UniProtKB/TrEMBL annotation, chain A:
NCBIfam families: PA_CoA_Oxy1 (TIGR02156)
Pfam families the record matches: PaaA_PaaC
GO CC annotation, single: cytosol
Name of the protein described by the UniProt record: Phenylacetate-CoA oxygenase subunit PaaA
UniProtKB/TrEMBL annotation, chain B:
Top-level taxon of the source organism: Bacteria
Any matching Pfam family: PaaA_PaaC
InterPro entries: Aromatic_CoA_ox/epox (IPR052703), Ferritin-like (IPR012347), Ferritin-like_SF (IPR009078), PaaA_PaaC (IPR007814), PaaC (IPR011882)
GO cellular component, one term: cytosol
Single GO BP term: phenylacetate catabolic process
Name this protein carries in UniProt: Phenylacetic acid degradation protein PaaC/phenylacetate-CoA oxygenase, PaaI subunit
Amino acid sequence: MQVDQAPLEEAFEATIAANDRIEPRDWMPEHYRQTLIRQVAQHAHSEIIGMQPEGNWITRAPSLRRKAVLLAKVQDEAGHGLYLYSATETLGVSRDELTRRLISGKQKYSSIFNYPTLTYADVGTIGWLVDGAAICNQVPLCRTSYGPYGRAMIRICKEESFHQRQGYELLMTMMRGTDEQRAMVQESVDRFWWPALMMFGPPDGDSPNTAQSMAWGIKRHTNDELRQRFVDMSMPQAEALGVTFPDPELKWNEERGSYDYGEPDWEEFWHVVKGNGPCNTQRVAHRKAAYDDGAWVREAASAAAARNEAEASQARVEQAPRPSLRGSDGRVETR
Amino acid sequence: MSDAHITQDTEGEHDNAYAGLLGNDAHWAFGTDFEDPLAGVDTTIPDGVDASELAQYCLMLGDDALVYAQRLSEWTSRAPDLEEDIAIANIALDLVGQARLLLARAAAADPALVPSLPEGSPVPDEDRLAYFRDAGAFRNVRLAEQPNGDFAELIARLLVMSTWRLAIFQRLVDHQDAVVAAIAAKGVKELAYHRDFAGRWFVTLARGTGESHRRLTDAMRTVWPLIPELTASTETESRVGVDPATLADEIGVVLDQVLAVAGITAPETPGLAGVRGRTGRHGMHSEALSRLLAEMQVVARAHPMGRW
């Protein structure tokens, strides 16, 4: 049966135009659904892959308080992944399917996590600059047109800003420590500054999906707008911290009321996006190993649930007390 | 969307990632600086309690938590599913919290226990104890330090560890030392959850598939030989804390109950011997501990004057 889509499309466009939310039960164009799945899944994958570079330092955290802070942070990232995979489920794709797309390389995650974490200062720098850049990207998404995504983002942004403060606070503390610690902070900031700028994506001229995403209210600002805002916000923070950014072109532009800054190495950016970054292979292999190693556990959970259900309905049928968990021959049933 | 609209949007307070970053902000989880975790608590040693023995006892319980939390935290980003990743991290976090309180209590009760660092080092006592002792000075049971193995081994070990520790903490709630009693009261709730998590998974794996059942059986053969050490008396424990020997029956009853629901039988394995009778509580560990500590302590030891 052919359904006339015109009124549906009109209602959809009207919702978008009014800055209202599209909800899972609402009709939406297939292209909108696919774009959202791609974006939300990529975001979810970024949270999950992002557990690795920082998780790399949990077992070596240099104080018990820092160990607790870092464990809690990486745990939050798993939680963010959960909310976001739940949001994609409302669009008709399961977490399991998306995980398989991630580990087969069909879907991407934020390239920043393909850079290695080499010192404990990186934990702080990731909090300050990487989470800071992520927040710049994500805060506008709290008002994104798709309801479940927007609501997940509200919670995620609150926690991200908490992480960012903790990261900055770690660097501040280290700067009050020894000369070696101060050098460690500067070296870390030098290494992460350019990759952090790249987190906003390619320059507007090279970002093919931006226009459509903005028209649909999935994306609210262009890559370059967000990048500029990030630079402007980071500069006073760097001064307060006592570190510099590795960009000789960085200077205040009175006329624009913003900082001018140099061009990131876009060749490196595309290298990393295309899979040749320092850690791409390692990150995906780690995720795949966890998924594969856990397969028997997930199967066991499903089998046990099915068995409990079957026994419960059997018991209801017989109107009898719950039977022993052992099989009729007294042995544990195994398959 | 007009430019004016964008500008208006971007100036909302939630759009500025850095708002308040430098200001005097409300409190953050785990504090913004090192704070004495026992601040405000009466740390006077009660009459009739030997301070140095109390310190040794806190070290034992603190090291169990610290070393086991270290093992659990190795699971981060490796669990079978996100829900388990989060749960395991939670358990590790609880135990790091218990370790901090107990090590701080040990240091306060007997400052002579705390390793000395160069003059002026800002490293707090709990971290001196955690990061600047060698394996032979650790007093945890050997069960805590064993390498992780697979998820079945995690669950089997967690079931035993949390059952045992919960039994101890339930008794310590009435301890003469107000600090130990308070730590125990907080820990009981946490440990009850750990045991519940482990017990549910234990039954699930036992009743799941042939493979999960086989893996669980194998795991029990690895874990069960370390149980007798948990209920072997030492003089310090019997005098100042809970005599582990008095826990054997209770732990047995709990484990039997879980095993019965799971429909699985305990392996007939003898307890793991010590060296001339010395085990974890005496500083005699398995090979795994020094390696675990080498990793855990590497950054802290490189910066004895460092601030974190």
